[in-house]
User: Which sequence fits this backbone?
């Protein structure tokens, strides 16, 4: 939703609600963890009201543990925080689980996937950032595909049900490659909202998904 028109948030949420998209991805930025500010609870609530789709909340904020409960109360189904934003990722996962929500961790482009290996068992999802977090509209960092493949191997070796999501520079042009690398969920902002027909762009991305995922 970062690429939506916030002056027409109801309209844009309805468009996504009526589309083939399975989840609604919400980017929360605090101006500290990333050099940009997006929105917080007051904007999340109307999105929650306008759609009962799975709400995928991506926190790009420092000290996420302070706010996890409020995001759960605001209607998040999955809360993803950044590995780099906390000293106690295990504690943050525990809070999310206590709220009855699914827990995800995201890593920035410079953070190796190996740091997540000890945490995988407790996670529902890992979000690989394929651009520097903070702004929409950036180009995909090609090395992100290696990270996805490495993470896929790690998850499969441990036979864990952890999903892989990728965020940044994703469109119908690279969706097939990303699903083939092992992604389960693709986040697209500008590729969807900037498309002449956003709903058709979503369908094109989903058509690249293999039937066994
Ligand atoms: Zn995101």
Assistant:
């Amino acid at each position: 939703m970062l690429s939506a028109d916030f002056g027409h948030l109801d309209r844009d949420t309805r468009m996504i609600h009526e589309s083939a998209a399975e989840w609604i991805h919400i980017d929360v930025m605090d101006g500290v963890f990333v050099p940009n500010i997006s929105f917080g609870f007051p904007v999340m609530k109307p999105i929650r009201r306008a759609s009962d789709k799975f709400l995928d909340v991506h926190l790009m904020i420092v000290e996420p543990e302070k706010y996890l409960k409020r995001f759960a109360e605001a209607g998040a189904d999955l809360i993803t925080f950044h590995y780099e934003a906390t000293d106690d990722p295990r504690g943050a996962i525990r809070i999310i689980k206590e709220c009855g929500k699914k827990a995800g961790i995201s890593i920035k482009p410079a953070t190796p996937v190996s740091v997540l290996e000890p945490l995988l068992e407790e996670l529902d999802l890992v979000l690989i950032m394929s651009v520097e977090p903070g702004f929409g509209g950036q180009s995909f960092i090609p090395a992100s595909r290696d990270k996805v493949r490495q993470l896929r191997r790690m998850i499969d070796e441990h036979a864990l049900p952890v999903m892989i999501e990728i965020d940044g520079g994703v469109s119908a042009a690279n969706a097939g490659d990303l699903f083939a690398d092992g992604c389960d969920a693709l986040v697209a902002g500008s590729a969807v909202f900037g498309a002449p027909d956003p709903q058709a762009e979503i369908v094109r991305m989903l058509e690249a998904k293999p039937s066994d995922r």
In short: The mean pLDDT is 96.
